Amino acid sequence: MHTVVIGGGVIGLTTAYHLAREGATVTLVDARPTGLGASDVNAGWIVPAEAAPVPGPGVVLTSLKWMLRPDSPLYIRPSLNPSFLSFMFGMWRASNAKAQRAGFAGHLALAEHTVEVFDEYRADGMDFEMHNEGLLMAFTRKENLDHHLTHLDLVKRYGLEPTVLVGDDVRTHEPLLSDAVEGGLFFPKERHVDPGALARALHDRLVGLGVDIVENAPVESVEIRNGRVRAIRSGSRTFIGDRFLLAAGAWTGPLSKLFGASLPVRPGKGYSVDVEPFALRSATNLSDAKVAVTPLSRNLRLAGTMEFGGLDEDINQVRVDAILRAPTTYFRGWEPPRTPVRPQAGMRPMTPDGLPVMGRLGGLSNAYVSTGHGMLGVTLAPGSAAAMTDLILRDRQSPLLAPFAPARFSGGRLAHAS
Ligand SMILES: Cc1cc2nc3c(=O)[nH]c(=O)nc-3n(C[C@H](O)[C@H](O)[C@H](O)COP(=O)(O)OP(=O)(O)OC[C@H]3O[C@@H](n4cnc5c(N)ncnc54)[C@H](O)[C@@H]3O)c2cc1C
After folding, report:
1. Of 11, 67, 171, 387, whose CA is between 20 and 30 Å from 329?
2. Is residue 418 part of a domain?
3. In angstroms, what is the span from residue 330 Cα to ligand 1's centroid?
C-alpha cells in the first residue's frame, strides 16, 4: 500500500509517521520545506481542556466590535466574495452553545490519548522539547472566567482535573501575575512543546522509516480516472500511489477543487514572537487579551491574533505590537523587549463550524482529507493521525471521525470554499 501525503505540516507529518510505522510505503510532498508556517510559529500547546471550537455564543457580535479596532485579537477582513460570505454565514449558524459544546466533546474524544501518544513519539526516538507543567488560564475580567466554567463538566469527564483559582489564589499559584488578574483556571495535565523541534523530529523519524519526503514541490494537478486518483503532479514530477491524503492546512480550500470537492477551509492568520525567557511556572493563557505565553528553554514565545483574510503570511505590525503589549497588564516585572523582535505569521486552517474536516474526499475511492484543525493542530494531531491511518490502511471508519465528516459541507448546509 503506497500512500501519498500532500502537505508536511504537523498533520501531514504525524499521519505519514503513523502510516509508515504500520508498514505502509509513504511519499510526502510539500510545496516548501516541511514544518514551516503554522506548524512552526504556533504556541506549541497540547490543550484538550481548551479545545472548544471558535464559533460560540457571542462570537459574531464580539468579532463585529473587534473589526473596528486595528489592534484587536480577532479580525475579519470584509469581502463581498460569495464564498467568503457563505463561510461567515456558516460560522454564524455554528455560533451557538449547543453546537460549540458538541464540537468540544468531539475534540476531547479525539484528543483523549494525545499526551500518551506524544510520549510514544519520544520513546520512538523523536527528540523535541516537551513540558508537562500544565497550563494556566489567567483572567483580568471575572466574567470571562465565569464563562469558561460552563464546560468544565465536559473537561472533568476526560480526567483533566481543573482547579479554579479566585483572587489571590491565582497569585499564590503563579507569583509573577499582577494584581490586575482576578482569577484563573489551572489544568495540570496540559503540556507544551517546541513546535519547530517537533516538526523537525517528525521529519527526521520519517526519513529513518524510509519515507520519501519531497520538498519544494507544490502540487498543481490531480489525475483522476474512473473515480480514483491515479497521480498528482508538481511541475514535471508525477507521484503515483494507491491512496492520497490531502493535508495542506489553510491551502486545502483551493487544492480540494483539484479532487472534485470544494471544502470551505480558509486561513485564520496568527503571529508569534520569541522574546527573552521569563520564569513562569507553566504555559499561560492571557485569556482576555487572547495571547498565548509559552516558556521554552531558549526563549518565551508570545502568540495570538486570528485574522480572516487572504492566503498569505504577511505581517501586520499593529497586531504584533498588541501581542507584545499584552503581558504588561498580566505580569509583574514584565519588560517589553528592548531589541527588535522577529515576528512570524502562520495560517490556521479554519472551517465555518470550527471543526476539522477528516475522511474520504470528493467521492473518490482512494482520496482522503485531514485538515481544518484551526487553533488545535498540535493538540489534535496524534488522534487525527491514528484515526486517518485506520481509515486509509484498513478502511475502518473510527466513530471519533463522525463529527468531522467532509460530507457535512455537501448540500449547502455549511459554506463552501473559494
Ligand atoms: C499563532 C498560532 C498559534 C497556534 N497555537 C497552537 C497551539 O498552541 N496548539 C495547537 O494545537 N495549535 C496551535 N495552532 C494551530 C496549529 O498551528 C495548526 O492547526 C496546525 O499547524 C495545522 O497544521 P497543518 O499540517 O494542517 O497545516 P500547516 O502547518 O499549514 O501545513 C500545511 C502544509 O501544506 C503545504 N502545502 C500547501 N500547499 C501545498 C501544495 N500545493 N502542495 C504541497 N504542499 C502544500 C504547506 O507548505 C505546509 O507545509 C496555532 C496556530 C497559529 C497560527
Report:
1. 67
2. no
3. 28
Q: Residue 305, by phi and psi: left (phi above 0), alpha (psi -120 to 50) or beta?
A: left
Instruction: Kindly report which listed range (81-85, 135-139, 286-290) carries the lowest average pLDDT score.
Output: 81-85
- Distance from Cα 394 to the centre of ligand 1, integer Å: 26
Confidence of residue 411 (pLDDT cuts 50, 70, 90): low
Distance 309 CA to ligand 1 centre (A): 16
pLDDT at residue 416 greater than cutoff 60: no
For residue 417, being part of any structural domain is answered with no
Does residue 256 have its Cβ closer than 6 Å to ligand 1? no
CA 118 – CA 187 distance, rounded (Å): 18
User: In this structure, what CATH number is given to the domain that contains residue 301?
Assistant: 3.50.50.60
Query: Is residue 12 within 6 Å of ligand 1 at its C-beta?
Result: yes
Ligand 1 atom closest to 374 (CA): 19
CA distances from 211 to 29, 208, 289, 417 (A): 11, 7, 42, 31
Q: State the residue range of the domain holding 260.
A: 2-412
Residue nearest to atom 22 of ligand 1 (CA): 377
Cα 214 to middle of ligand 1, angstroms: 18
Shortest-distance atom of ligand 1 to CA 36: 49
List b or e across 33-72, with b for residues whose CB sees 16 or more CB atoms inside 10 angstroms.
ebbbbbbbbbbbbbbbbbbbbbbbeebbeebeebeeeeeb
346 assigned to some structural domain: yes
pTM score of the predicted model: 0.97
